[in-house]
Design goal:
Blueprint (H helix, E strand, L loop, with lengths): L15 E4 L9 E10 L8 E7 L5 E6 L17 H5 L9 E3 L8 E3 L2 H17 L6 E5 L7 H9 L4 E2 L7 H11 L4 E3 L6 E5 L9 H13 L3 E5 L5 H5 L2 E3 L6 H14 L5 H7 L2 H8 L9 H9 L5 H8 L3 H12 L5 E5 L2 H5 L4 H13 L9 E3 H4 L35 H6 L7 E5 L3 H4 L3 H9 L7 E5 L11 E4 L8 E3 L7 E6 L2 H12 L21 H12 L23 H11 L4 H7 L4 H8 L1 E4 L20 E2 L5 E2 L29 E3 L2 E3 L14 H5 L33 E5 L16 H6 L5 E3 L1 H7 L6 E5 L3 E9 L7 E3 L6 E3 L10 E8 L8 E8 L47 E7 L9 E4 H12 L34
Parallel strand pairs: 7-8, 7-15, 10-11, 10-13, 11-12, 15-16, 16-17, 25-29, 26-28, 30-31
Antiparallel strand pairs: 1-2, 2-3, 3-4, 5-6, 5-17, 9-14, 18-19, 19-20, 21-22, 23-24, 25-33, 27-28, 27-33, 28-34, 31-32, 32-34
Helix pairs in contact: 2-20, 3-20, 4-14, 7-11, 7-12, 7-14, 11-12, 22-23
Bound molecules: iron/sulfur cluster (SF4).
Length: about 950
């Protein structure tokens, strides 16, 4: 008999005994080996532990890892559901090669050797012919810090493409334009006021680590303000739920900011010390004396129109509540934690000002990286340097970084099929990795057209744990591991503290522990696909071996980056790579490991996470040793400049010749504040940028300060009231961005538990709108967008602002074959042309049937539960009907849609999706015309972050005609 406890004690993880729950009421003991890893089912990277049954050598269950500093043993439903993904009967277990037409669903099983040789040979030819820009790696959920980038650098390929501009580009540029860090890191646990423009208690960024700390703070008396047109679970738990009109959130923040300044409840001394107010006055208010006392006057003048009454009219939140919240915030200086990610930031044209105006409140209250405030991601995220070197990238790929978007954050990935179609380039090898653009991205049919065309994409390699709408059109489908089957490191800014997580193949680790128990040793060169289910591999080992296949004799200069130091002439192993990283590049880890009597790698294999020692608060205030600025020039702003650098670029600025250098950035060691040398922020001014000279100098002076940009779905521009003759009046704003807490983009379809919990996404519709629009209770609705329409069921609810409708993302999965690419969440569909198709550009996705029980006994991983599927709904693929709408500054897809809502027509059926890709192209050109390409010699500000930052010379625009 033992006492109750939350988790098995660590010293018993290798040999743990507990009663078999399924054997109850018999008290049957089962023996387990517990192996830690981290979750890959969202971006939070929470700790997990896999319970290996010592009798079957299989994972019996997956639970939380109490030793993980961010998740602290807790998980959402998606963490334990990793088990479903591992043993899913329809997962891809072996490498496959297409044998029929693209998209015909005909495949042959091949060996890993064949896949490596064929793909590697193709790439070797491309590299030999200097066609590096024809290789692209397009990643959805990266979940890892840097290994893929190391690979691309070693190849000399500027080929990193991401999902960022369907996710977070707007929030990033909003934060980055203040503090140089492009993500917020909120100290929720110690906050007294928490203001969220997202649904953090169910789905926000890093939501489980955040949610548990937000709840702790509320228990301690903190007030929560949730801003969302939809009553999310977060809104329901909040002290204030503010249902703003979509896109007016910056207006609301500025009205609060104005109140703080007018009532003098702002933290003026912090603003004086840490903002670039001199530049603000010089460039925005040159008529005022250049002295601190002018700043309040300038701000009150600039924000004069943002009164609470004006905000009430614009946002829909009453003026008294705005004053009450401003008063609340003003009474808690330095203790305001705010956060915006996705949500309003991702929905609207100019949505990047949501983050900029929200963080303005942190600046005004001095709540920047304070205890209970909001810091920058770089202050709390820890990314260890990558061992084994890499080389400087000298290429620039305009398929990802087109010159029309010099400030984009980051790659313009949603425009790739349009660029391919208009002949800006083509791809020799396109790797999609945990990415499903045909289903996830806007304008999916344009993606399908491009991916089907062998002249645009000559070889598509889908690296994926599961079937998807996109992998169906690939040439090779290569099975990659989920979180229990792969190695990587990662770190996220989940709270005021730093940590590093180590995902590992639990199957390999279990085999290692078992071998140790039996007095054997594993061969470290054995690939992890020998341990994982089927031949499921992991990216890191795949990249290493593919690099050898590209450059078998080393003549291309690629192989050397993937060669073992311990065993020259052999590929490096994951053990060798991470042993070196953990021993040399993670402060405090070697000491902690030594104290436990282990090597750093053993320590991480036993725990999968490590809290990196840190002092998280106010790093910008840290004093700088005067020796660090010796030889530096000091400019008029007190910024020290290293000789021969632009500040932002510490390496090879001299290569730029006569090119005018960008303003300073993170290459500068210090800034002088009140006569003292301080670390400051990684911005050109080393301060928080109230006035962004970068935005002003790169074509957008009207948006250089926090301001409101009317959204493309601004409610005052919509036709929401019928005319005198009763016509019209059926436009509404569609919110398609919110997540259901238990679903995960593409990967959740392969989890039976998650699909049993969540398998519907009706259109949220306020009862008053339903009445006006003639939509019956639960009635079918036709939602018409700029490029097509979809047909969906409806749900009358007062949990949505009138004038706004909403349907969650993560639903509407489909497959084209009855017996293939099946999952717990896909319906059988057919793609054809529409009856109205005159020019061969109109597609119709027709749902043939939803989910149904089936027999999986012939699967290598049979599951009796496939016979018990009782739900039929799989949702509607709404994203396909959205055109690309990239914000002209950040490049973010502005997800919200201006739609017409009408009752379904007689021939409409649930799940119908109709799109005209000719209209998609018109919309693309329309949004492209909003951009302002650079007028200077550079493609992009040197100090701006971008994945795989190349050498400064690559930033120089080629001469016209070159
Ligand atoms: S929040 Fe849930 S899905 Fe995300 S990492 Fe944590 S357990 Fe996994």
């Amino acid at each position: 008999m033992t006492e109750l406890r939350n988790y098995p004690p660590h010293d018993q993880w290798h040999d743990w005994t507990e009663l078999d729950a399924k054997a109850w009421p018999d008290k049957k003991e089962r023996k387990y080996t517990i192996v830690p890893t981290t979750c890959f089912n969202c971006e939070a990277g929470c700790g997990l532990v896999a319970y290996f049954d010592q009798e079957t050598d299989e994972i019996a269950k997956i639970e939380g890892n109490p030793e993980h500093p961010a998740s602290r043993g807790r998980n959402c439903a998606k963490g334990p559901a990793t088990l479903n993904q591992v043993y899913d009967p329809e997962r891809i277990l072996h490498p496959l090669k297409r044998v029929g037409e693209r998209g015909s669903g005909k495949w042959e099983r091949i060996s890993w050797e064949q896949a490596l040789s064929e793909i590697g040979g193709r790439m070797r030819t491309a590299f030999s012919e200097d066609r590096h820009n024809e290789i692209m790696y397009h990643v959805g959920r990266p979940g890892e810090d840097g290994y893929a980038n190391r690979v691309l650098q070693a190849w000399g390929v500027d080929g990193h493409n991401s999902h960022t501009n369907i996710c977070s580009s707007n929030a990033r540029i909003g934060y980055q334009s203040w503090m140089g860090h492009d993500r917020p890191s909120s100290d929720f646990a110690n906050a007294e006021v928490i203001m969220l423009i997202s649904a953090h208690l169910e789905a926000g960024h890093y939501f489980n680590p955040h949610a548990q700390r937000i709840m702790e703070a509320q228990k301690n008396g903190a007030k929560i303000i949730a801003i969302d047109p939809r009553l999310s679970n977060t809104g329901a738990k909040a002290d204030y739920w503010l249902a703003t009109w979509p896109g007016t959130e910056p207006f609301l923040c500025l009205a609060i900011a104005r109140e703080l300044i007018e009532q003098e409840t702002w933290n003026g001394d912090f603003v004086r010390r840490w903002t670039n107010w001199e530049t603000y006055l010089q460039r925005q208010h040159p008529d005022l004396p250049l002295e601190w006392s002018s700043v309040r006057t300038a701000m009150l003048r600039e924000y004069a129109e943002y009164t609470p009454e004006a905000a009430e009219q614009k946002t829909g939140v009453d003026a008294a509540t705005i004053r009450e919240i401003a008063d609340l915030i003003g009474r808690h200086p330095t203790k305001l934690a705010t956060h915006n990610w996705r949500a309003a930031g991702a929905g609207n044209l100019g949505g990047w000002q949501v983050a900029r105006c929200l963080f303005f409140l942190n600046v005004l209250t001095g709540s920047v990286a304070t205890k209970g405030g909001t810091a920058g991601n770089g202050m709390n995220k820890f990314s260890p340097a990558r061992p084994f070197g890499s080389k400087k990238l000298t290429k620039w790929n305009e398929l990802e970084w087109p010159r029309e978007y010099p400030l984009s954050y980051h790659e313009m990935s949603i425009l790739l099929p349009h660029f391919l179609k208009e002949g800006r380039g083509s791809l020799e090898v396109y790797f999609s990795r945990v990415y499903n653009p045909i289903w996830t991205n806007p304008d999916g049919f344009t993606w399908m057209e491009a991916l089907k065309d062998p002249d645009m994409v000559r070889c598509h390699v889908a690296l994926t744990p599961t079937w998807s709408e996109t992998s169906w059109f690939a040439d090779y489908v290569l099975p990659m591991g989920v979180s229990a089957e792969r190695h990587d490191v990662h770190s996220y800014e989940t709270h005021a503290g730093r940590w590093i997580g180590f995902r590992q193949s639990t199957f390999r680790r279990y085999a290692e522990i078992k071998a140790e128990r039996e007095g054997r040793k594993l061969d470290p060169h054995t690939p992890s696909y020998d341990y994982n289910p089927g031949e499921v591999w992991e990216e890191n080992e795949f990249w290493i071996h593919l690099s050898w296949a590209i450059d078998p004799d080393g003549s291309l200069g690629v192989r050397k980056f993937f060669e073992s130091e311990e065993h020259p002439g052999k590929p490096i192993t994951v053990d060798e790579y991470y042993a070196k990283m953990f021993s040399e590049n993670v402060p405090g880890l070697p000491e902690a490991a030594a104290a436990a009597g282990q090597s750093p790698l053993e320590y991480m294999r036993e725990r999968s996470a490590f809290g990196v020692p840190t002092d998280p608060y106010e790093p910008y205030e840290r004093p700088v040793d005067p020796a660090a600025v010796e030889g530096c020039a000091k400019d008029e702003r007190g910024v020290f400049i290293k000789p021969g650098t632009s500040g932002a670029w510490s390496g090879d600025v001299a290569d730029l010749g006569d090119v005018a250098l960008a303003k300073l950035g993170d290459g500068s060691p210090a800034v002088e504040i009140d006569g003292e040398l301080k670390e400051g922020f990684p911005t050109p001014s080393k301060k928080l940028e109230l006035f962004s000279e970068t935005l002003a100098d790169w074509g957008w002076p009207e948006y250089a300060t926090p301001t409101w940009i009317p959204s493309h779905v601004h409610w005052e521009d919509l036709d929401m009231e019928p005319g005198p003759d009763g016509s019209g009046g059926n436009e509404r704003i569609l919110l398609p961005t919110f997540r259901i807490p238990t679903l995960i983009h593409t990967r959740s379809a392969n989890s039976k538990w998650l699909n049993e919990i969540s398998h519907r996404h009706p259109l949220w519709l306020h009862p008053s709108d339903a009445e006006k629009l003639g939509i019956e209770e639960n009635g079918l609705v036709r939602v018409t967008t700029r490029i097509g329409h979809f047909v969906i069921g409806s749900w009358r609810t007062e949990g949505i602002r009138p004038g706004v409708v909403a349907a969650s993302h993560h639903m509407g999965r489909w497959r084209l074959e009855e017996g293939e690419a099946r999952s717990w969440g896909t319906g059988k569909a057919a793609i054809g042309s529409s009856a109205n198709d005159n020019g061969g550009t109109t597609w119709k996705l027709k749902r043939e049937h939803g989910n149904a029980p089936y027999d999986s006994s012939s699967s290598p991983q049979p599951d009796d539960d496939t016979q018990r599927i009782w739900w039929t709904d799989t949702g509607v693929h709404q994203n396909a009907t959205f055109c690309v709408q990239p914000d002209p500054i950040s490049g973010m897809q502005c997800w919200h849609q201006r739609v017409r809502i009408t009752p379904a027509e007689p021939d409409d059926e649930y799940g119908d999706v109709v799109v005209d890709t000719a209209k998609s192209r018109e919309a693309y050109l329309d949004w492209l015309s909003k951009t302002r390409p650079p007028e200077g010699p550079l493609r992009r500000p040197l100090w701006y972050a971008r994945p795989l930052k190349p050498a400064a010379t690559a930033y120089v625009l080629p001469e016209e005609g070159a």
